Amino acid sequence: MRRHPQAATGGDGRPQDRPRVLVLRALGLGDLLTVVPALRALRRRWPGHEIVLAAPGRLAAPAAATGLVDRLLPTSATGREVPAELSWTGPPPDLAVDLHGNGPPSHLLLQRLRPGRLFAYAHPGTPDIEGPVWRDDEHERERWCRLLSWYGVDADPEALDVPPPATPSPAPGAVVVHPGADAAARRWPPERFAAVARALRTRGHDVVVTAGAGEEEIARAVAARAGLPGSAVVGGAADVPFDRLAALVAGARCVIVGDTGLAHLATALGTPSVVLFGPVAPRLWGPPPDPRHRVLWHPDPDDPPRPGDAHGDRPDERLLRVTPTEVIDAVRELPEREPLRGAAATRG
Predict the structure, then answer these.
(1) β-pairing, 175-178 with 207-211?
(2) 34 and 143 assigned to the same domain
């Protein structure tokens, strides 16, 4: 790996006596959690390097919670687009890793920093990058581990766990229902979430409804239809602080959620989950095979792995085939969790 002269400090005043690895993954929470195995492989391969993650500022706390990232470099972009620039300071990174996507926009963004090496998938638009061939039908965890393996870095796609939080759970043992998603295509109807929440409440479960920023209306509608008090809604006006959200999920009986970030958080923390899929096959984004996770998906027999638009403006037809009864039955079939101990067992 090429070495660059090291300055005493960077433009932000930080010491620059450590070589740096820059990882581009400027997407959402679920996207971050799917590359935990890749981040773990980079940390193991270069334990003395500073691992810098280029991602939206809202992911600073989740990135730190993985224990695999030293610093977050905030990015800004619309939707899932590649950032126009990175506010990198100091000497070029020793290594840049493109875990964002596959194509010239992200490749060129990193190449402009003149890294010592660049790990990325091959693309005809950037023929100077000799990376592996991209596959459309590959699970995200496996995709990025395969990229690193091609460059000689051992990576295990099943190594996706993150440490449990020290923060006490606000509702230990509760069933967490998350009706939101960042696109309508992956948002199961609120009345169905409410029917599930009401049935579980009737069966004696403590039920909590979570909401991200801007999702308060839908969360409160679900709670009201289910006969839950307003105090059962967590978040909505703003995102739930990550330490509190992680504590809630870590201490939950289970999580009921669509194909969104909270599903990946449940997987990372080992919390049982029931995950509802629609426009994208669970073999591309779902949890690994495990009795703790139940996946509900009803594609047509000849459907490809991505039969619908994951960012569409209406619920996908495959998602609408999932019924409340199926979800309730799936919760009943989940394995019981061991009794909660320590911070996670304390209601905050």
Answers:
(1) parallel
(2) yes
